[in-house]
Amino acid sequence: MTAKTADAVDWHESIAESFQAGYDHSPRFRERLALWRDLIARHVAPGDRVLDAGCGAGTFSFEAARVGASVTAIDGSAAMIALARKRQQELGLTDIDFEVALLDSLSARPAGTFDVVLSSSVLEYLPDLQGEVARLVRLLKPGARLILSLPNSESLYRKAERVAFGLTGRPRYFAHVKSMASASELAALYRQVGVVPVEHHFYAAPPGDRLLMQLGGAKRSKTLVVMVGRLG
Prior knowledge:
alpha/beta
């Protein structure tokens, strides 16, 4: 674990409960859940082996398990995993294995293990984006699906955040962000590691989204981009 990775993990430790509570009251989080629920319903099949890399409190792991998949879910934050295990008991979903682990631990796993790999808003905190995507791709079976999201670098709001952070040190989470990508950049990265892009979506509206939509549509207003790809 590098110091920078540790900082990002510590940050998520500190916000674990408030982050998860966002799914109960935040329109942005509800939009995120609705989109990912739809993607999982369409790209995960009963009996699939699924990896949720950076699972947080397990929100998308639970969606995959409800489809009938067998899920391995890892996160570097012990607080997030504790929330996930508590919720797992409440839901009675047994076919999920939650582990406290960093993504670099995945290098020890056998290649070609999973039918689907999910990674939501994780890879932006790691210094080697292409290397981390390649690490995930190694675990895919032929024809398997990769679904991951990153901050949308074309978002006007993200660009404003970068400027604000440089001037004021806020928003504080930006100190941990190492990578952002446009949809075209993410598609190019997928192709570099042998994954064929299938579809992408923009989501997570910032404050003032109506004005930003008028200025540039979803591509320039929404703060996150998610891409689905298929190996080979």
